[in-house]
Amino acid sequence: MSKTQQANKLELVLERELDVPCNLVWKAWTTREHIEPWWCPKPYSAKVVDMNVKPGGAFNMQMFDPEGNKLPPNNGCYLEVVENERLSFTSALLEGFQPAPETDKNSEGCDFPFTAIITFSDLPGGKTKYVARGLHRNEAEMKKHEQMGFQEGWGMCADQLVAYIKENLM
Amino acid sequence: MSKTQQANKLELVLERELDVPCNLVWKAWTTREHIEPWWCPKPYSAKVVDMNVKPGGAFNMQMFDPEGNKLPPNNGCYLEVVENERLSFTSALLEGFQPAPETDKNSEGCDFPFTAIITFSDLPGGKTKYVARGLHRNEAEMKKHEQMGFQEGWGMCADQLVAYIKENLM
Fold first, then answer.
1. Cα dist from B105 to A6, A63, B70, B102, B170, whole Å
2. What is the ipTM of this complex?
3. Rounded to an integer, what is the distance from CA A28 to the centroid of its chain?
4. Of the partner residues B3, B96, B112, the one whose CB lies closest to the CB of residue A7
5. Which residues on B lie below 8 Å from A98 (Cβ)?
6. Cβ of B134 under 8 Å from any chain A Cβ?
7. Is A92 contained in some domain?
8. Any domain includes A64
9. How many structural domains comprise chain A?
């Protein structure tokens, strides 16, 4: 089996055509004030703790449940930052590429190393082809993430992203 | 305590002035045929399994003991590739930034997630300032790596690197 096939077995993918321009999708992903409103499926919410959009820069988000209770920290760093094209980040490494501490095996949350690779490209009519790939270290964790609702969660966020851009950035 | 101080607690650093030019040190680190001869402290040896010098590209090395027996695989990917300046790689992520499988807690080898950040800069007289930083996920693993001989091992490799360049690249 080739490496690509192996990688694909550990990958979840959301692919969408978004009815907003590529540069605004990029802006909403990479600007502190514009990411918080849509990044987490409502009625959950998110706050930026630390965000330094460059390879090795911190991408630390705090999520809250509908009652306002903090969920476990969501810390990591950026890997690739290619404006209007590609944004990658991981929880396997923290700020400065420091390997993240071991995860808690008993956690019920999304508490496993995870890499996200988001690609953006222009489509005719001011639309964006939007592909979000999630990479996992093994099949069990990939399936757990799938069952937790990867498609639904990332899909809701994509809808919120489009609505936010139309209301606030256009 | 600031994040930087926390990070430093988990870091091992080798700093050297090398008596060879910066661009040749870069070449020896990033070229398949030129990395194998010096990368592993002799009488151990190393072979490149896969090497694609770009962010997310594989950096997979196979080490052998003096009898020619294979050591556990040494797989990872590049994080930063800035010619003649900075080369970073990690074992926490594999090719394509895929999170690496869990390590074997019972291993006696260097079997833990590890990030290396190597910086190179020109010094007068065709010399190179060479700094190799090793980042660990916790203090226990940092200390284990220190006791395994990080300074001695990376120091021997730096000596071998200089000798190889003088004999073969100058």
1. 24, 31, 19, 9, 44
2. 0.90
3. 12
4. B96
5. 7, 10, 115, 135, 137
6. no
7. yes
8. yes
9. 1
Suggest the residue from A1, A79, A139 to mutate for an interface test with chain B (most B CBs closer than 10 A).
Answer: A79
User: Does A111 reside within a domain?
Assistant: no
pLDDT in tens, A100-116: 987 655 554 457 899 99
Question: Which strands, in side-by-side order, build the sheet including A86-90?
Answer: A11-18, A127-136, A114-123, A86-90, A77-82
**Cα A37 to the center of its chain, rounded Å:** 14
Residues in chain B with CB shorter than 8 Å from the CB of A90 are: 93, 97, 99
**pLDDT tens-digit series, residues A53-90:** 999 999 999 999 999 999 988 999 999 999 999 999 99
Q: Give the residue from chain A lying closest to B101, CA to CA.
A: A137
**Domain CATH number, residue A151:** 3.30.530.20
Q: What is the mean pLDDT of each run of 10 residues along chain B (170 residues)?
A: 54 96 98 97 96 98 96 94 98 95 59 92 97 94 91 96 97
